[in-house]
Amino acid sequence: IGVRCEVKEKDDEDGFYMRRCVEIARKAVGCTSPNPMVGCVLVKDGKIVGEGFHPKAGQPHAEVFALRDAGDLAENSTVYVSLEPCNHFGRTPPCTEALIKAKVKKVVVGMVDPNPIVASTGVDKLRDAGIDVMVGVEEDLCKKLNEAYIHQMLTGKPFVTLRYSLTVDGHFSDQLGEEATKSGGYYSQLLHEYDAIILSSTSLTNKFSFPASEEPGANQPLQILIARNPSSPVQIPVLTTEAASKVIIFTDKETNVEPKTAERGIETVVLDRINLMTILDYCKRHGLCSVLLDIRGNNGDFEEIFRESFEQNILQKVVVEVLPIWNRSKEERLPMALTSLGQRLKLRNFTSRNSSES
Ligand code: AOF
Ligand code: ZN
Question: What number is the ipTM of this complex?
Answer without folding.
Answer: 0.98
